[in-house]
Amino acid sequence: MAKKNPLVLKLGQAIRARRLAIALSQDDFADRIHMHRAYYSAIERGEKNITLATLQRVAKGLGVTLGALFADVD
Questions:
Q1: What does the UniProt keyword field contain (predicted)?
Q2: Boundaries of every domain in the chain
Q3: How many secondary structure helices (H) and strands (E) does the chain include?
Q4: Fold held by 6-72
Q5: 23: phi > 0 → left, psi -120 to 50 → alpha, else beta; which?
Q6: Helix axes 6-21 and 52-62, enclosed angle (nearest 10)
Q7: Rounded to an integer, what distance in angstroms lies between the CA atom of residue 53 and that of residue 40?
Q8: Could you give the dihedral angle defined by the CA atoms of residues 54, 68, 63 and 10, in that order, rounded to the nearest 10 degrees?
Q9: pLDDT score for 74
Q10: Is the Cβ–Cβ distance between 12 and 42 less than 8 Å?
Q11: CA-to-CA distance for 13 and 28, rounded, in angstroms?
Q12: What does the alpha-carbon distance between residue 14 and residue 44 come to, in Å, rounded to a whole number?
């Protein structure tokens, strides 16, 4: 198994924290942003190195800017 990228892991954790703060399940959030739940789950686990376009979609669904998400990543 390949080692996960620490930056991708931290970004996934930041996304998860933001999703939990708005009290949505992974299923509900994935539906909100029109994404398959399994793919979204892999993002939160840091298993997907997503594109900026996908990250923008996630940020919009969370109601935050890309900058805010990146600020959550130490």
A1: DNA-binding, Transcription, Transcription regulation
A2: 6-72
A3: 5, 0
A4: 434 Repressor (Amino-terminal Domain) (1.10.260)
A5: left
A6: 20
A7: 14
A8: 50
A9: 77
A10: no
A11: 18
A12: 8
